[in-house]
Amino acid sequence: MSKVHNWQIGREMNYPYTQAFPRRQFAFVFNINRCIACQSCTMACKSTWTFSKGQEHMWWANVETKPYGGYPQFWDAKILDLLEKANPDNQQWSGKPSTDKKKPYGQFDGKTIFEAQNMLTPDSARVLGYLPTDEEWNLPNIYEDNPVGKKGVRNELDKEGTELPVHKTWFFYLLRICNHCSYPACLAACPRKAIYKRPEDGIVLIDQKECRGYRKCVEACPYKKSMYRGNTRVSEKCVACYPRVEGKDPESGGQPMETRCMAACIGQIRLQGLVKMNKDGSWAEDRYNPLYYMIHVAKVALPLYPQFGTEPNGYYIPPRWVPRDYLRQMFGPGVDDAIERYNHPDRELLAVLQLFRRSNRIIFRYEIKEGPKVYEATLRGRKVTLYNDTVIAYGQDGKELFRTQVEEPLHVRPNKHANSI
Length: 421
What we know:
alpha+beta
């Protein structure tokens, strides 16, 4: 095992390989507060990549209802339970969120999946994990829309606690694709070295000529986004629609495009991009890249289960109405600050949030042009001022992709229109 620095857990950790990082990293932000579980992303991915024989159970992109749903079923509860058994009562964070780029969320003092591997049997991989049963892959939408109700009472909703900050009856949608981690568990576990991370964009791929279907990647990935295909006897996973990211899609005009699941999102909850990397694995200063801004400046977007140790490159704006203990377990100690900033966005954050899903091109830089004040009031004891600023998005070539405003235009239909009876 080598020692590598993981900035998401704020310390060095064990990993089977020495650290090596791409020039740019594929990354994304999902805003859970906006997701309506329409499954457009799910079906866009399915119809593009996994519609063939042997792929019936494969959903590289999926939307599951938390806290009960999961694909495969209970994937996160099972790996959390294994980590707790490996390190009883010590899966804790110390310190507090800070401006320190090496430990922005504090320090995770527990064991990652790479440090708890001694629980595995001798013939298992170098990563703590488990193989889901066939039944656990069968129901991608199990427990959809099932809420948490009154504690200890079945089939009854709590009639209190219907206001922010926390609802007593709640659920939320968790949208997932492969996180294309900086320290991928699938790569670490593969005895064939058939899995690799592309140096140009950090996308994690499986070389199917080298794969022999040992399923060590399926066992190791804590997010269960590597999947075994029985009729070909090799594993497959999300490829981040890399021809689109490369700008080779026929519609791209040579410019990097967002993935199919991103482009299909009608809830405008997704933003994907490429971020610059330093040689030590930290993100290079890129103040006006929208992903850099939301993750490292505004800090409203957080990694999914950072304590696993994979340093995922998928980030989430947490839901506002969910009990904080549940969210801290899922997104780490930065939850309270992230929700506070999202609930009371400053002028810049409010403008950047308008960039979500306004184009299928990848945004490399934004610029804000200040507009007039259009609204002022007091909300939950705090003064709120809204400015109709214009945010301008630029592509890789530096040319403007689009511009949009904070205040959406209002269109009033005339008395007579095409559908009048």
